[in-house]
Amino acid sequence: xxxNILREKRGVALILALLMLLVLTLIGISSISTTTFETSxxxxxxxxxxxxxxxxxxxxxGMNQLPETNPIQKRKLKEDSxxxxxxxxxxxxxxxxxxxxxxxxxxFDSSWEFKRFQVNTAGESFGATKEIEVQVGxxxxxxxxxxx
Length: 148
Description:
Largest sheet: 5 strands, antiparallel
Shape: rod-shaped
Oligomer: single chain
Structural class: alpha+beta
Distance between the termini: 111 Å
Number of helices: 1
Number of domains: 1
Order of helices and strands: HEEEEE
Number of strands: 5
Low-confidence stretches: none
Strand content: 25-35%
Helix content: 25-40%
């Protein structure tokens, strides 16, 4: 009597269980890999956001010192977070702010003047760097005064 192994159903449940276990293992490994990657992305985003807010702190310091256009030297804000005036390349040699001179503003007659400045700062936090540039109108000042 000849036996046909393919027609016997013994061991089919074991093979199916092993295949299901293999599929579930691959799904688990894929999930762990995706979770690790997403965690890395969110960590990088947090560091970049910190750098942006550090640079924004520099903008506020710069706007508070106007109409002076002196550079802001590298200042520590918190652990491993610094800001300075200028760009990321100016870390060792901060740049002063730009003055665009006087201009008129809608709603004010010629007896009033405004000064316009460009404030650039860079912030660094845990190795990530962000730059911010704002243009600021300073005034109103009585026309012909010697404000700088």
